[in-house]
Amino acid sequence: MILEIDNVELNYKKKSVLNGVYLKAETGSITGILGHNGCGKSCLLNIIFGSLEPKYKLIRIDNKPILEPLYLNNRIAFLSQHDFIPNRMKIATAFKLFRVNWDNFTSEFPLFEKYKLQRFHKLSGGERRIVEIYLVLNKTADIILLDEPFNGVAPLYIEKIKAFIHHQKYDKIVILTDHRYKEVTDVSDSIYLIKNGCTKLINKMNELEDYRYVNQF
Ligand SMILES: Nc1ncnc2c1ncn2[C@@H]1O[C@H](COP(=O)(O)OP(=O)(O)OP(=O)(O)O)[C@@H](O)[C@H]1O
């Protein structure tokens, strides 16, 4: 499956946020999006998900234009920047709602066993992120969007999460963004940089220096 988005125009009042986006993501490869604070990474993921309506956009899946928000057809799972599990929901209930197996989760993350009947808000920020990433990655979906999956996650778990993300790519489209750019470049097969409202496909990592995204890669 191939997902493409282009012709995006997103403005807030007189401020132009996105105006020259082309992004192509396909099953079997992971697509990373990089860019400075406020360049429009989260907006772009929300536009793909369908929760943000820009002035113009064109989304195609396998060359067919998609006119309805993608979230309506349940083929897409989105880890947004902010928690999506309600604070007072028990962790076991969230796993039931997502139809994700609790025992498989705790075999990968044994330290979470004690949280089964705990309410979501009692977990630390990093622990909440790990639960949500796991649910999103394991939900039945063709497309996965991850907005800052590594934010607040301890280094030991980052490697594990990267391995999970990598595992998903064989039958899903995965698009992710994070400020931990080395993790993003490490796990991604193709990289887009958003600069001045436009996407630039990065072929060689030193282009990230040329575009002044990093001082030294
Ligand atoms: N609801 C809104 N009203 C006005 N401006 C907005 C709104 N949402 C986003 N913006 C602006 O759009 C721009 C892009 O925001 P976005 O959250 O997509 O950036 P980002 O690249 O994800 O940033 P960060 O890396 O800091 O999370 C920012 O300048 C932001 O201030």
From TrEMBL:
Residues 3-217 form the ABC transporter domain. Keywords: ATP-binding, Nucleotide-binding. It comes from Hanstruepera neustonica. This is ABC transporter ATP-binding protein. InterPro entries: AAA+_ATPase, ABC_transporter-like_ATP-bd, P-loop_NTPase. Pfam families: ABC_tran. SMART domains: AAA. GO terms for molecular function: ATP binding; ATP hydrolysis activity.
